[in-house]
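INFO batch 0412 | record 1 of 1 | parsing
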Amino acid sequence: MAKICSQQIVGVVREDSADDASQVADAYAKHGIRILEITLTTPDAFDLIATITKRYAGDDVTIAAGTVRSSNDAAMARRAGAEVIVSPHTDVRVIEYANENDMLVIAGAATATEVIRALGGPDYIRALRGPIRDVPLLAGGPVTLDAIEGYLDAGCVAVNLGVFLAVPDLVRMKQWEEIGRRVILATSIVHSRKNASPAESAYIH
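INFO prediction complete | emitting tokens
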């Protein structure tokens, strides 16, 4: 959790092929993202988690499993090497499994109805932070590059970035270096914020 609060960016890998997903994960890691979320919607996701975990074992890269919908998914992700569980919903069994196995779990708390009605965004986060100050909030996708500061200013401890880094057209054209350039831009936004102002509490805004 401390690492997520410090890094403030989670690179989400959600692709239609294992090869593209591997290339995207490499572009993220090689250009400065230290927390990679491999979603289980990606083909051969558990194998990919194991491969990426081994590939970056000595590089301070933390692997999260995303779109975890059951405790069985969580167990398989853990065996593959994931240290963090990200769930699109709130499932007590997933949370209990993660806690019992010393894994960080990030549960989805917004309902589908809220998403459809567009109750998200920095203003929504800011409203939640008023009465709920002791629960760290991470903004899920899609978060655009120009919205990073807005979410962090609103009190999020970090943002999930995926489709606006690994833009589908760039993945389709195998433009891994351009994806890397977007990663550098995203991480520079976070770094410039840290250099510009003293750190604030991750829990109180």
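INFO post-check: The domain at 2-189 is CATH 3.20.20.70 (TIM Barrel).
INFO record closed
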